[in-house]
Amino acid sequence: MTDADDEFGLRPLRPDDSFSSMKPGGERFNPLKIFARKNARRYEEENLARTYVIHDRPNNRIAAYVTLVCSEVVSGENLPLVNGENLHFPYDTYPAVKIARLLVDDRYRGENSRGLGRILVNFAQGIARAEICPAVGCRFVVVDSKQESIGFYERCGFTMVDTHENRSRTEPVMYLDLHKAS
Q: What is the pTM of this model?
């Protein structure tokens, strides 16, 4: 998304942003709208999370949003994150950025899709690479994916943590290794 794009803009959440007109696209996605309406601003104020929105300028509404938080990924035999690569990292967890929430308004999916979800995932990777990695170190971007969103995240380059416990979760953990992502 560029500054020259007249239809959409990507920016940090503003105090006057309203999520009331967002259509989440089904009951399973309602908690994402509720979070945006009730918690996103408070999390901003308390430095718990950062939310970024894609704003549909002609319709004056939020078309999509992503909320990012610091996170970690537990290492170990049952979590083969580095595919045999020896990182020589002395801790039991790897630093990560988590896509804590991502929602694209139902009116911008399917035939009306503009790739807004992918734009937000790429934006999250960009924040991790450009701002977090150079300042404090970060190896992964992670997400707890809803079952119906697994394919989307796979197309964005994420891999599901391949354990029986994770695969059977309603929101399995998926990860993207920033060193291997294009």
A: 0.88
